[in-house]
Specification:
seven-stranded parallel β-sheet, Rossmann fold, two-stranded antiparallel ribbon, alpha/beta, 8 helices, 225 residues
Length: 225
């Protein structure tokens, strides 16, 4: 993919647009829906103390997602998800933000959330917690890094709905506790969890595991019928 320069909202008009007519390599598509790109949701700390190292790793994570030909999905928030969005954007990837707001004005003013480095914003009007469900259900795979209470909620939804989850370890917060949290859940949901401290390797493992194994897992909603 051709890399793109990151600019502010006013300069986004000058950047290279995502060309949806470009052919997608067969190994980049969703095995459950040929022709569609795989989506990776990035869930992590939007505020609070965030180390420079965690920000760097988040950006590398976004780049790795784009290199794999996947769409990056975030909660359209600042912090680690925005750093991942920046990395994906720079690498020429498509970035979709799931906003808690019901409009662009509310997104910016009420939630103080960014618009830069996102190709599409989806306005849910559901608030910070309500949009978490949309985040997870829009993602084929979910990457967790850092994180506080909001990320904990997203982890719980992803695990309960049997998602493929990748944890970028040693990034602080919830990411350092995931294994213990899931053991305490004592619940087999069909979710699969991968752990790695290298962003590129983690994404490669997630995509490979999804394409070869996890996509065959029945939808949680089919199981509930």
């Amino acid at each position: 993919m051709k890399k793109r320069a990151v600019g502010n909202a006013s300069s986004n008009n000058n950047r290279r647009r995502w060309n949806h007519t470009e052919p997608i390599a067969q190994d980049k598509t969703n095995p459950r829906a040929p022709g569609m790109r795989l989506t990776v949701g990035v869930m992590g700390s939007a505020s609070g103390p965030i180390s420079a190292r965690a920000m760097r790793l988040a950006r590398e994570l976004g780049r790795a997602i784009a290199v794999q030909g996947c769409v990056t999905i975030t909660g359209a928030c600042p912090g680690l998800p925005l750093a991942a969005a920046q990395g994906a954007y720079e690498e020429g990837g498509l970035v979709v933000g799931i906003s808690p707001g019901l409009s662009l004005d509310e997104h910016r003013e009420k939630y103080s959330s960014p618009v830069n480095c996102h190709d599409v914003l989806i306005f849910t009007g559901s608030g910070l917690m309500g949009r978490e469900v949309v985040n997870i259900r829009s993602s084929d795979m979910v990457a967790i890094l850092g994180g506080r209470s909001g990320t904990l909620g997203e982890l719980a939804i992803a695990y309960d709905e049997g998602k493929l989850i990748g944890v970028l370890t040693d990034t602080g917060g919830i990411s350092n506790m995931v294994a213990k949290i899931l053991v305490a859940c004592e619940k087999n949901t069909g979710a699969r969890v991968l752990y790695d401290d290298d962003p590129q390797r983690l994404v490669e493992r997630m995509v490979r595991t999804y394409r070869l194994q996890h996509y065959k897992k029945p939808s949680i909603f089919k199981l509930r019928r």
